[in-house]
């Protein structure tokens, strides 16, 4: 019954209690504060007379509500009794719940959640004692600034001294073993199986990265960002936007980036191999996780970055064009201008044949214009970019290109990129596995988001298969998410989003200052946190609206991808406040393998949808990934400090109990 499930859910979240009868005749628990929240949910507005005891008026109101809803007890009546607040220990509560679950084997194992994330047993019971000692050792090394700053040099020196075989063995016992699941899709299966048994699902990533020098990376990027005609297309026009041009100073996109993987374009054959790698990840996810897993991909791995630069600039130029019509900035669909408004803006030239053809291709609905260009054709692999992105001049009526003439070979490259992405997403749909398209630098992101949204429109017709990623360090993130939610609503597709703080903030600030455009980033960590929480709250609010309207709440699916426990705690509290439950399967949480286990595992074991980002690949080929993990951990010393404290606590307890050879055994089922 909904009432009893709500009481049980509240009982699992808080330590203080007010007892109520249960069907077994024993007392159930509900805290004083949760009681009031629960009563407000059921339309009963009253207050208690003091902490720990409910007023007689409140009890009478609750009993009346129980009677109306028909919740009989064993003797045919149902009454809520007020008792003094008690404070059972979390251990006894957890033990009682585990005993109840053992008595009912069909019920998935669930543990109470400590939202302070200070329970070492919940954090690490999925680990052997050796794994805990290794983790502690790794974090101690990550606390050394000298070792972290010179980690790649040290690893290469060790490989030269020890030889490949001994070096690989040493890495598997330390950094590689902690941060990477295995060498290939077969060897990662035991890790995925154990994660699943403790309520955690995987996001797979084949983390082989090229170890390029800065000079080689710059050379590749410059060549791949300039047209084969020999000019930088984004500089052809006087109206070009400096943000969307290549600059040799920032051509190495790894500059000041620690937590994101970077692909550098070599040729079309490399992009084909990248596509095959992503397809293998999909097969691995399906085979090892029963369809609950996710694969992460980057669009820059699938095609020439110059094309993304150009399409991004086109999108921003189109927004400028609409600004002249609407008198304000922002995405086109937010202006709510109609085709008739556009015709009036074009005035006498709207009767010209080319202008009429342009107007016929504009995408609109009853609420106004959605898109100026036929994006549907673009993702169907049969478009010509040069001919698609043209708008009429309101004075002359001449069709003006927003993108320079693209050579036929580069048109074919763009179609190849879209074909590869279509192949990946169609395979994911067939396998019932989800795709998360990672965010990248702001000069690529308008194109990435536009293409991803169109993939959602095409494939997210029955469930969220494709997810876009939104970086909350950007000033426009909230507006962008609201706009994309609006498009999903108006075009009736399922919306999937991964919210992250972001990986490129230092690079973005430096590039904006050097090239002379407005800094797109928030000014502080606190402003980024506020943006993250504001955006998440809006998504939760819209999910609640769907629930209240009896519309599938899964029309909006959100991943809270954060290592910040305050943000995770905020999400949990907002879910409870707004009335969204883990069982709704609309909110999930994600962290990297080997980081913040004290957040991920308690969430999964408490019945929340929790994911680990799982890298895999041969030892010698994932060294750049391991280098970035070391750098990232150096930047979060407070987080490491807490994880080390919890690790040391659990190691000490196990040694005191003689559990040196502890074997993890989980009976949890991921939600």
TrEMBL record:
<feature type="compositionally biased region" description="Polar residues">
    <location>
        <begin position="85"/>
        <end position="109"/>
    </location>
</feature>
<keyword id="KW-0285">Flavoprotein</keyword>
<dbReference type="Pfam" id="PF01619">
    <property type="entry name" value="Pro_dh"/>
</dbReference>
<feature type="region of interest" description="Disordered">
    <location>
        <begin position="85"/>
        <end position="116"/>
    </location>
</feature>
<dbReference type="InterPro" id="IPR015659">
    <property type="entry name" value="Proline_oxidase"/>
</dbReference>
<comment type="pathway">
    <text>Amino-acid degradation; L-proline degradation into L-glutamate; L-glutamate from L-proline: step 1/2.</text>
</comment>
<keyword id="KW-0560">Oxidoreductase</keyword>
<comment type="function">
    <text>Converts proline to delta-1-pyrroline-5-carboxylate.</text>
</comment>
<dbReference type="InterPro" id="IPR002872">
    <property type="entry name" value="Proline_DH_dom"/>
</dbReference>
<keyword id="KW-0274">FAD</keyword>
<feature type="domain" description="Proline dehydrogenase">
    <location>
        <begin position="191"/>
        <end position="640"/>
    </location>
</feature>
<keyword id="KW-0642">Proline metabolism</keyword>
<dbReference type="GO" id="GO:0005739">
    <property type="term" value="C:mitochondrion"/>
</dbReference>
<dbReference type="GO" id="GO:0071949">
    <property type="term" value="F:FAD binding"/>
</dbReference>
<protein>
    <recommendedName>
        <fullName>Proline dehydrogenase</fullName>
        <ecNumber>1.5.5.2</ecNumber>
    </recommendedName>
</protein>
<dbReference type="InterPro" id="IPR029041">
    <property type="entry name" value="FAD-linked_oxidoreductase-like"/>
</dbReference>
<dbReference type="GO" id="GO:0004657">
    <property type="term" value="F:proline dehydrogenase activity"/>
</dbReference>
<comment type="similarity">
    <text>Belongs to the proline oxidase family.</text>
</comment>
<dbReference type="GO" id="GO:0010133">
    <property type="term" value="P:L-proline catabolic process to L-glutamate"/>
</dbReference>
């Amino acid at each position: 019954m909904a009432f009893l499930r709500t009481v049980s859910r509240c009982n699992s979240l808080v330590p203080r209690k007010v007892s109520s009868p249960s069907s077994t005749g024993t007392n159930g628990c509900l805290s004083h504060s949760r009681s009031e929240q629960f009563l407000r949910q059921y339309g009963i507005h009253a207050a208690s007379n003091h902490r720990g005891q409910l007023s007689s008026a409140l009890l009478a109101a609750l009993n009346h509500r129980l009677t109306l809803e028909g919740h009989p007890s064993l003797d045919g009546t149902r009454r809520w009794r007020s008792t003094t607040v008690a404070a059972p220990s979390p251990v006894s509560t957890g033990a009682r719940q585990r005993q109840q679950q053992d008595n009912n084997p069909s019920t998935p194992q669930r543990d109470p959640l400590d939202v302070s994330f200070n329970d070492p047993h919940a954090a690490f019971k999925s680990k052997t004692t050796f794994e805990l000692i290794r983790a502690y050792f790794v974090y101690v090394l990550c606390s050394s600034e000298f070792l972290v700053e010179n980690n790649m040099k040290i690893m290469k020196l060790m490989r030269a001294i020890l030889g490949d075989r001994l070096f690989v063995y040493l890495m598997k016992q330390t950094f590689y073993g902690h941060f990477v699941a295995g060498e290939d899709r077969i060897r990662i299966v035991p890790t995925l199986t154990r994660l699943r048994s403790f309520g955690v699902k995987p996001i797979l990533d084949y983390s082989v990265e090229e170890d390029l020098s800065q000079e080689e990376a710059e050379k590749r990027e410059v060549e791949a960002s300039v047209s084969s005609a020999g000019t930088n297309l984004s500089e052809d026009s006087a109206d070009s936007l400096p943000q969307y041009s290549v600059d040799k100073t920032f051509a190495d996109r790894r500059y000041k980036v620690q937590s994101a993987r970077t692909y550098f374009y070599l040729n079309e054959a490399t992009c084909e191999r990248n596509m095959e790698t992503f397809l293998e990840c999909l097969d691995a996810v399906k085979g090892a996780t029963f369809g609950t897993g996710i694969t992460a991909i980057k669009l820059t791995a699938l095609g020439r970055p110059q094309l993304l630069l150009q399409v991004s600039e086109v999108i921003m130029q189109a927004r400028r064009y609409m600004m002249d019509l609407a008198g304000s900035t922002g995405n086109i669909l937010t202006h709510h201008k109609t085709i008739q408004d556009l015709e009036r803006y074009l005035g006498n030239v709207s009767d010209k044949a080319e202008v009429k053809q342009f107007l016929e291709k504009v995408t609109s609905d009853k609420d106004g214009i959605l898109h100026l260009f036929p994006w549907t054709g673009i993702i169907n692999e049969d478009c010509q970019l040069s001919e698609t992105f043209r708008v009429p001049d309101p004075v002359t009526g001449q069709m003006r290109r927003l993108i320079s003439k693209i050579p036929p070979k580069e048109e074919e490259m763009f179609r190849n990129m879209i074909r590869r992405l279509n192949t990946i997403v169609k395979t994911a749909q067939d396998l019932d596995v989800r795709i998360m398209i990672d965010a990248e630098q702001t000069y690529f992101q308008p194109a990435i988001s536009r293409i991803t949204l169109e993939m959602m429109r095409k494939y997210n017709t029955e469930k969220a298969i494709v997810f876009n990623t939104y970086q909350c360090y950007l000033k426009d993130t909230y507006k962008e998410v609201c706009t994309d939610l609006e498009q999903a609503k108006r075009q009736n597709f399922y919306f999937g989003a991964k919210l992250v703080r972001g990986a490129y903030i230092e690079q973005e600030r430096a590039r904006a200052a050097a090239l002379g455009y407005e800094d797109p980033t928030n000014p502080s960590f606190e402003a980024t946190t506020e943006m993250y929480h504001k955006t998440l709250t809006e998504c939760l609010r819209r999910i609640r609206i769907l629930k209240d309207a009896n519309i599938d709440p899964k029309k909006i699916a959100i991943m809270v991808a954060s290592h910040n426990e305050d943000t995770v705690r905020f999400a949990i509290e907002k879910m409870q406040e707004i009335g969204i439950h883990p069982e709704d399967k609309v909110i999930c949480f994600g962290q990297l393998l080997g980081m913040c286990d004290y957040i991920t595992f308690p969430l999964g074991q408490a019945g929340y949808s929790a994911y680990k980002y799982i890298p895999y690949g041969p030892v010698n080929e994932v060294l750049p990934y391991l280098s970035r993990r070391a750098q990232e951990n150096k930047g979060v010393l407070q987080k490491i400090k807490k994880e080390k404290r919890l690790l040391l606590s659990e190691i000490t307890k196990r040694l005191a109990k003689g559990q040196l050879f502890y074997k993890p055994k989980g009976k949890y089922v991921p939600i």
